[in-house]
Amino acid sequence: MLIFTNRLLTTGTDEAVFSTSFIEQSDRLGLATVKKTSKGWSVSGVDNDVDNQDSMGALRPLFEGSRPVLVYLHGNNNTPAKCFARCATLEAMYNVEVVGFSWPSEGYLSNGDKLPEVEPDTEDGDEDDLSGVAVGKQKPSRIKSKILRYQRAKTNAINSGEALARFFRMVAAARLFINRQPFTIAAHSLGAHFLQYSLDVAGATESVAAAQNVALLAPCVRSSGHRDWLANVRPKGQVFVTFNKNDTVLAGAFIADKSQFKLGAAPGSELLRAPHMRYVNFTNGEVGKGGHGYFVNDGMPKKMKLLFERVFSSERDLQGDEAPKKVFLVGCDADGLTCYMGAPGIPGIAGQP
User: Fold this and answer.
1) Relative to the CA of 37, which of 155, 255, 269, 300 has its CA 20 to 30 Å away?
2) Phi, psi (5° rounding) for residue 45?
3) Per-residue pLDDT reduced to its tens digit, 165-183
4) CA within 13 Å, CB half, 5
């Protein structure tokens, strides 16, 4: 798999090549090829300063290949190894070529050090860790550490926007030059926050527009006002926003951000009404423990799997004259804007609208 990053890369042959440090407000990018081994991950082809020629050479075989390309942007507290594992899972489940972007989401300072107020034994790599904030059964210092790391990850995303925008430009350039396989952008959880802020960089919206689909999966962004910035995301195909009122990670983010409702929990009434938009409600569906990573759950219902297969393969969710229940377990609203993978109208957990 091909992994781009704005982390500083070091020498070596395993995941430790990807450091926790990065340069704030820089568009510098690195890349490497990663492969699963019996002992972890093998990292090769390391380039710590990627130029346009480098990126075209790396991306060209994927866009000339036999499978659609999926660009995956992970969320909060993903170590490089966790990013690699998620990308490998997506490739295996959906038969796509995944290009991952590993960013400093563990909540470290830009020099790679942990925040001084954070307990030193807090765990790296658990993207569901924030759910512990909502449960409130841990000691206050532990909960404070989770919140501080999450908030620092948000800051790191904002300070990495130039790099992500440049990455999108490189992917778009390869797609337009080779003009064979399409690509879709999938941003999970805090990755949607990262995507949102990268759109402020000149040329980013035009690059994202080269994608066929854009999927915001359990997006950890503010519900209020989302239609204003999301209106600038205009891919060739569709934009998908998936949400689940019972998402425990987003319940933790609600608390960490001082009662800020999250788009991935409930988008509210101010929806972006456009022909290319689709909101997909997973509340009360088969979303797995915690309800935050439902797009990679083993044993998901066939219709749910079909939806993600189509979205990630740069296809339309509903094709031809298909009835909504062909794909969506409970169908769609009359206007087709919101569709359902579970029974609608049942209240979610505390702290969500």
Assistant:
1) 300
2) 60, 40
3) 999 999 999 999 999 999 9
4) 32
